[in-house]
TrEMBL record:
Binding-site residues for D-ribulose 5-phosphate, renumbered to this chain: 8-9, 66-70, 99, 109, 132, 136
Superkingdom of origin organism: Bacteria
GO biological process, alphabetically ordered: carbohydrate metabolic process
InterPro entries: RpiB (IPR004785), RpiB_LacA_LacB (IPR003500), RpiB_LacA_LacB_sf (IPR036569)
Keywords for this protein: Isomerase
Protein name: Ribose 5-phosphate isomerase B
Alphabetized GO MF terms: ribose-5-phosphate isomerase activity
Species in which this protein is naturally found: Sphingopyxis granuli
Family: Belongs to the LacAB/RpiB family.
Length: 149
């Protein structure tokens, strides 16, 4: 599986550690930057990550910034992406199982390396459950679909 990973300056150290760990776990990793502490704009990296996932260059994505919030918002601007901000493994598993999330976001200032690895393990090892969830996931990218209200 090819995984794209991107971060802003606040999370570049966590990104580097996770990219190395993912490679060690046998994943192909596309590191989209940033690669230093100089201030950058997280939307630029979120958009690049979203493009990689939407185009099929990567099957999954890992988005990181200080809180995880800003970069997750930027990734979710792309209708082909379903980015879930998580801070523990249960949310990561449910994001895949119920929401077919293809990108996970975490905050480097809030999530340590061991918890980030646990979240990624849950995210990458969980399949989408489909069934009743598929209808709901379809509506995420197609808001014009008939509602059940």
């Amino acid at each position: 599986m090819r995984i794209a990973i991107a971060s802003d300056h606040a999370a570049y150290e966590l990104k580097a550690l996770l990219a190395e760990w993912l490679r060690g776990e046998g994943y192909e990793v596309a590191d989209l930057g940033t690669n230093g502490p100089e201030s950058v704009d997280y939307p630029d990296y979120g958009y690049a990550l979203a493009d990689a996932v939407a185009s099929g260059d990567a099957e999954r994505g890992v988005a990181l910034c200080g809180s995880g919030i800003g970069i997750s918002i930027s990734v979710n601007r792309n209708p082909a992406c379903r980015c879930a901000l998580v801070s523990e493994p249960l949310s990561a598993r449910l994001a895949r199982e119920h929401n077919d999330a293809n990108v996970i976001a975490m905050g480097a200032r809030l999530t340590g390396i061991d918890m980030a690895k646990a979240c990624l393990t849950a995210f990458l090892s969980t399949d989408f459950a489909g069934d009743r969830h598929a209808r709901r996931v379809d509506k995420l990218s197609n808001p014009q679909l008939e509602t059940s209200r």
